[in-house]
Amino acid sequence: MLIGQELLNRARSLSNRSEDEIARGCGYVGPSGRVLRKSFYKALVEAKGYKLPSASSSGGGGTRGRQAEFKTRVHGNGNLLIGHAYTRRLGLEPGQEFRIELRQDSRSIWLLPMDNKELKGSQPSTEND
């Protein structure tokens, strides 16, 4: 990704092309091939001599991607999805197993981590009345 005067010179030489082609020509392409417009525009502004506040010094003005909303809904096929943001926040690892308890009185679902003893032992009940 070009920066500074190199970026300005290359962008100027590609000025007869589309914005996406200019950004690509200056190296602002992500691993998936997607054009990184925000990074490109930010680099252009900085190359012109303007100082932009960093995300940490601007009181959290930067983007952090999608944030966990702590809500979900039952899908049309009856599945209930708990996404990566939640499992990561709890420090859960792929392959960990849980016992599902249905709490009828509060209509809630509890996931209880299973230890090795439980995995080898009897089948747990999934309903509490």
Q: pLDDT under 50 segments (min length 5)?
A: 56-60
Order of helices and strands: HHHHEEHE
> Count of helices?
5
Cα-based radius of gyration, to the nearest Å: 25 Å
What structural class do the secondary elements suggest? alpha+beta
Essential attributes:
5 helices, 3 strands, 3-stranded mixed sheet, single chain, elongated, alpha+beta
Would you summarize the structure shown here?
The protein is of the alpha+beta class and 129 residues long. It is 30% helix and 11% strand.
What would you say this structure looks like, in words?
This protein has 129 residues and is α+β, with helices and mostly antiparallel strands. Among the domains are: 4-47, no CATH class; 92-128, no CATH class. The protein contains 5 helices and 3 strands; from the N terminus they run ααααββαβ. Helix 1 (4-13) crosses helix 3 (37-47). It is elongated.
Structural topology:
Blueprint: H1 4-13, H2 19-25, H3 37-47, H4 84-89, E1 98-103, E2 108-113, H5 116-120, E3 127-128
Parallel strand pairs: 1-3
Antiparallel strand pairs: 1-2
Helix pairs in contact: 1-3
